[in-house]
Every structure is written in structure tokens, then in C-alpha cells.
Amino acid sequence: MTDLVIVGAGPFGLTLARVLAERGRRVTVVERRGHIGGNAYSSADPDTGIEVHNYGAHLFHTSNQKVWDFLSRFTDWTGYTHRVFTVHAGQVYPLPVSLATINQFFGTSLSPDQARGLIAQQASQDPQDGPGYQVGAGGQAGTGGQSAATSAPTADRHKAADDPSLSLDAKAVRMIGRPLYEAFIRNYTAKQWQVAPDQLPGSVIGRLPVRYDYDTRYFSDPHQGLPCQGFTALWERLADHHLIELRLGEDYLGASATAGPFTKASCSGQVPVVFTGPIDRYFDQSAGPLGWRTLDFEWEHPATGDFQGCPVMNYADLDPAWTRIIEFRHFHPERDYPPDRTVIAREFPRQAGPEDEPYYPVNTPRDRQRLDRYRELAATEPDVKFGGRLGRYQYLDMDMAVASALAMAAEMLA
Ligand code: FAD
Ligand code: UDP
Fold first, then answer.
1. Whose atoms come closest to the Cα of 207: which ligand?
2. What is the rounded distance in angstroms from the CA atom of residue 267 to the CA atom of residue 261?
3. Mutate to test the pocket of ligand 1, among 59, 245, 276 (most ligand atoms within 8 A of CB)
4. Which of 51, 115, 219, 375 has its CA 20 to 30 A from that of 3?
5. Are 387 and 16 in contact (CB under 8 A)?
6. What average pLDDT is seen over the chain?
7. Which one of the ligands is nearest to 60 CA?
8. What pairs with residue 248 in β-bridges?
9. Which of 32, 397, 411, 34 has its CA nearest to residue 223?
10. Are 4 and 272 in contact (CB under 8 A)?
11. Which protein residue has the closest C-alpha to ligand 1 atom 33?
12. Cα–Cα nearest to 188, from 369, 317, 28, 27
């Protein structure tokens, strides 16, 4: 017998399982894949021994002390600090936008105050400013974009950069002005999302800081690092509890060939369930599919000890078609990797089909409308809770997934 079934052995599911098991609950974790860790799984490349992140590069960072303390029970951390560069028009710039990027791009030597003044001026005098992203609006929410280019200035023009109704393009222009937006954001975003930037929420770009100094770190969080023995060792330790039963390779929603004894049909109304897979698939996409992006990876083993000189190189222009190249050895400079071999992965985003791994919630206004419908359906199943990035349809980083699982555990125990 089990007290709870958790569907999905990603960071959310494993955190929840661990906290509940430590409080005496018997937990069964059902995972469709043959491994734990969800999209934050990593493994040793068989040819070189280099730890690769099989579902895209994962860097841990948080400002949540509780999350940091919790995960630090299961791993030590390297001092890795993430830095990213981007290629635009044949030049390499540091990203996110900092004083280094601004001065290199404009060929200037501006001080922080001068640079702030320049960006503020470009942001406030933008000729294409239009209305914003309509949070929760219906399917035809075509505001901004082409129409915005010709629309008269409105009160929206005066919205602050942190206004949640701003679309990605409007917010980005407020953050960094149009020239930098067009160089570093517009085309990368087009490749990443294939959705008009006025249909994307501003929060997507709000993930990136803008700095008026020479701090070129990608994240500002006080806690950053990578698990010393790798991500999978961290997830294995988290799952290692005598009250946690892991069932790998079983699809909770699957037909009999792929399912185990724990399925939606067998568990409904019998045992509490926390589902961390895609919420639209749980409901058979009855309100229409939610928009997800997936990634194709092109793996290569160049015969060199250093392919690009940094872990992540972004490509800001439409050509080439990939968004970034990850060179995994640079995540662990402290390790003894082969001096003459490396592993890289080029990332090609595309719309996720029914058989694809859903990676990124797109979150257009139409998606939000459908999500509201799925949340209504979820409310009719009181024994089932939805959690994690896929279950909540939210762009959660690992620390946010863990924080949210800790909160759900506290709520369930109460
Ligand atoms: P997931 O990790 O997606 O786990 C859900 C699990 O549920 C999966 O293992 C899936 O197989 C399983 N599942 C789904 N349906 C079923 C079913 N029907 N039956 C059984 N099992 C099922 N976060 C960071 O903090 N830093 C980063 O640098 C970072 N980079 C990222 C890069 C990429 C390309 C992506 C896609 C995400 C990145 N993230 C990053 C986010 C990170 O992956 C998530 O925060 C984290 O994985 C969320 O954990 P989760 O448990 O909610 O979901
Ligand atoms: N982005 C961009 N250019 C870049 C990097 C990011 O335009 O060089 C935008 C893009 O829309 C992306 C978002 O900022 O989806 C968030 O970037 P982040 O690096 O956090 O994305 P992730 O690592 O989750 O793919």
C-alpha cells in the first residue's frame, strides 16, 4: 500500500517525495523515463566521460535560502558561476546586457550614469511602442507587433518596465532600448519561440538582468553552483529513502504496453496523486493542446580540448538556425577531463508535437485561456494535485520547482 502516488521523478516530484517520506509517508513515484531527475538529468558521455546535461544545460542558482539549505543536504556545490556570450554580426558580446555589452555595441566608453541615460532615452523615445500583452485575453489577442508599429502612442507607453501586462518586445525595449533589443533579443527570441514577441509575456525576458557595471554573471542570485558529483548523484541521494518506491519506465497515462500498475484509471479516487507531467495531457487535451516548445540537440565530439572557450555561446542572429552551443566540459574546470576531446550540443528549438518532450510553456494568451479551463477541470478532481513546471504550466527554474514542492509538502502535512 502507498499513501501517495507522485507522477514524475523530476526535481519537483523527488523533493515532495523526500519531505513526505521523512515524515513517515509511504510514497510511490511513477516515472515514464528510464531515469530520475526529469529534465535536470545528466550523465557521463560514454566516449569522453564528460558530464553532459541530456535535456539542455542546467545551472543551479537561487536566492531562496530554504531551497539552498534543503538541496545542500544531498550535495556539495562547486563554485561555478555562469557566464554567457553571444555572437551578433560576427562579433562576440557578453550577455546579459551589461556596461561591457553597451560600450562594445555602441563603440563607446560610457560611464554607468551615461549608459543609463542613453538606454532610458532610447526606451522612452521608441517609435514602435504599442499596447501590451493582454494577460488572460482571448485567442485573437493580436496587440502590439505589426499593428503596434503603426499604432498611436497610448497610455501603455507610460507603463513601467515591470508592468506584468507588457509583452516581451515592449518590456525588452523598456529594459535595453530598441537597438540592443534588435541585436540580441529579437531574432534569438524568434528562433526560440516562433511566436510573435507581442504574444509572449514580458516575464520571459524579465529573467535576464540588465547591469550598468562590468558584472557579467548570467544570474544575480547569491547561491550558484553545480553539484560536485553531478546532477544525477544529487537526485539519487534525494530519492534514496526506504519509504520511497521508484517505478521507472512506467507511463501513468500510458496504454497497457507502457503503463505499470499505477495509472490514472487504477488510482483515480483510490489514492491521493500528485501529477507533475503536462496538465493538458492529463486531461487528454480536451480543451485543446497547450503550446510547448521542445529542443532538438545536435551532438558532436570535436577533436579538441576547447571548442569555443566558454560553456555557452548564444547565436543572436537568424543565421545560424541554432540558438546556442553548449560545451559541457567548461561547467567543471575542476575535473580531470581529456585534454584533446570535447562534447558540444547545438540547440534547435521547435514546436512540441504530441510525441515530443515538452520543455518550455509558450504561454500565449490562447494558452492561458486553455490553462484556465484545465484548472477548472483540476478543481473537479480533489484527490489530484498538479505540480512542477509541466503540471503548473509555468516557466519554473529548478529552485522554483523545489520551493514549490516544499510548499506543497508543508500544505499536505498540515
Ligand atoms: P521535470 O524535470 O520536467 O520532470 C517531470 C517528470 O515527469 C519527467 O521526468 C517526465 O518524464 C515525468 N512524466 C511526465 N508525464 C508522465 C507520465 N504520464 N507518467 C510518468 N511520468 C511522467 N532550471 C534551472 O534552474 N537552471 C537552468 O539552467 C535550467 N535550464 C533549463 C534548460 C532547459 C533546456 C530546460 C527545458 C529547462 C531548464 N531548467 C533550468 C528548468 C528545469 O528543467 C526545471 O525547473 C525542472 O526540471 C522542473 O522540475 P519538474 O520536476 O517540475 O519537471
Ligand atoms: N534571450 C534572448 N537572447 C539571448 C538569451 C535570451 O533573446 O541571447 C531571451 C529569449 O526570449 C529567451 C529568454 O530571453 O527565451 C530567457 O532566456 P534564458 O537564457 O533564461 O532561457 P533558457 O535558459 O530558459 O532557455
1. 2
2. 9
3. 276
4. 375
5. yes
6. 91
7. 1
8. 31
9. 397
10. yes
11. 56
12. 317
C-alpha 147 – ligand 2 centre gap (Å): 25
Residue nearest to atom 20 of ligand 2 (CA): 207
- Measured by CA distance, the residue closest to atom 10 of ligand 2 is 189
Q: Which ligand is nearest to the CA of 55?
A: 1
What's the CA-to-centroid distance between 339 and ligand 2, angstroms?
31
Q: Could you read off the pLDDT of 307-363 as tens digits, one per residue? A: 999 999 999 999 999 999 999 999 999 999 999 999 999 999 999 998 899 999 998
Q: Write the DSSP symbol of residue 24.
A: T
To which H or E segment does residue 14 belong?
A: helix 11-22
- DSSP for 39-93, please give it: GG-EEE-TTT--EEETTS---EEES-HHHHHHHHTT--B------EEEEETTEEE
Q: Which of 234, 182, 278 is nearest to 15 (CA)?
A: 234
Cα 207 to averaged position of ligand 2 atoms, centre (Å): 8
Contact 296, 355 (CB under 8 A): no
**Sign of the four-CA dihedral 274, 247, 297, 283:** negative
